[in-house]
Amino acid sequence: MEEARRRTLQLLAPLADEQLNRVYSPILSPLAWDLGHIANFEELWLVQTVGDLEPLHGELGRLYDAIENPRAIRNELPILRGAELRAYLEDVRGRTLEVLEEVDLESGEDPLLAGGFVYELLIAHEHQHTETMLQLIQMIDGYEPVESNATPEPNGVVDGPEMVLVDGGLAEIGAGPEGFAYDNERPRHMVELDPFWIDRAPVTNGDYAEFVRETRTDPPMYWEPDGDGWWVRTAMGRCDAVDPAEPVVHVSWHEADAFARWAGKRLPTEQEWEAAARGADVDRANLDQLSFGCARVGAFADAPSDCGALHMLGDVWEWTSSDFLAYPGFQAFPYPEYSEAFFGDTYKVLRGGAWATRRNVARATFRNWDLPQRRQIFAGLRCAKDAN
Ligand SMILES: [Fe+2]
After folding, report:
1. Cα→Cα distances 19→8, 11, 90, 280, Å
2. What mean pLDDT do residues 164-182 have?
3. pTM confidence score
């Protein structure tokens, strides 16, 4: 929990209160809202639910309810700001640690506490919000990270087959009963897959630029023409030439789907994606935020998944063709609003995590979901096609 909080505060450290409170985009919360929401989620689950204590600020929690308060109106709410916000984070954390001293994580009687579930939930929640914060941070001119790592360089043969074959048959999908996973990743179940081909690597900027040129479709978010037939992209106020060897990012599901069809292929289903990711090494992937960007295709080429695919984890979330639906036998836990409220044909599933995703969120069974028109997430794609 302390590590997660250190990262949150480190990402926000270069920013003034005015920047935390500013609305940069109607589809992204002001950073001050995210920060208050992180503390409020902790207060709700650990202090109130587990510790059975009264909240510090009465009805404050209503302002931080993500479903009650759409992003576009979050800055108009009387949320905590400045010193008051920071004090709230610290006060909640102090009470959380007091509750932690008292609880029995071993008895297994309370499913919230068994195996420390509620603590894992809290850490995962904070990690996921720092990724959302990075979507906004890259829109802030002149942002300078406190700490950053060089993007991993390609370390293997970049040339290779364009697609790799995944054998058909029964595939195990979803998270097993042990360890932390969200309700929507469970239960683990078998699905019958036909054999299929999947791109060995994510679609690159070079590939996507060709698609844009040929079809006159819009370029990805943050791209501008460089006046010389190529593209530049803006992040944190800096303008750099688009690197043709990096995975394309900030495309919508509709654009990803159109690219796949243009290429004579299709998007993989999420089950196909998960089968292709089997054996991918979460420790050999561009994850965990501090590279502040994608690695060129071929980074960690010596650590492919079992079928030979690269970059299954890290760099960019990958759009799949699948709607966000319940697995057979799904049970909502610990609250229906986490997953169940989003099931249906409105949202599309993304898999694999991006450079901005914390490492322990990027497990191969993790299901992200978003609206098919969304482009602000760190999303790209890879294509698939039937093998027979
Ligand atoms: Fe949240």
Report:
1. 15, 13, 21, 38
2. 95
3. 0.96
Compute the distance from residue 38 Cα to the ligand 1 centre, in Å. 7
Q: Which residues neighbour 282 within 8 Å (Cβ) at sequence distance 6 or greater? A: 313, 359, 362, 363, 364
- Candidates 380, 259, 373, 272; CA nearest to 319 is 380
Instruction: Report CA(27)–ligand 1 centroid distance (Å).
Output: 15
Residue 122: Cβ-neighbour burial (10 angstroms; 0-12, 13-18, 19+): buried
Question: In terms of DSSP H, where are the helices of 202-281?
Answer: 205-215, 253-262, 270-277
What angle in degrees, to the nearest 10, is found between the helix axes of 31-42 and 82-102?
20
**Whole-number Å distance between alpha carbons of 128 and 130:** 5
Q: What separation in Å is there between the alpha carbon of 382 and the centre of ligand 1?
A: 28
Looking at residue 325, its amino acid is L
pLDDT digits (tens, 9 = 90+) for 299-357: 999 999 999 999 999 999 999 999 999 999 999 998 887 899 999 999 999 999 999 99
Distance 124 CA to ligand 1 centre (A): 10
Instruction: Tell me, in angstroms, the distance from the centre of ligand 1 to residue 86's CA.
Output: 18
Distance 330 CA to ligand 1 centre (A): 21
Beta carbons of 119 and 2 less than 8 angstroms apart: no
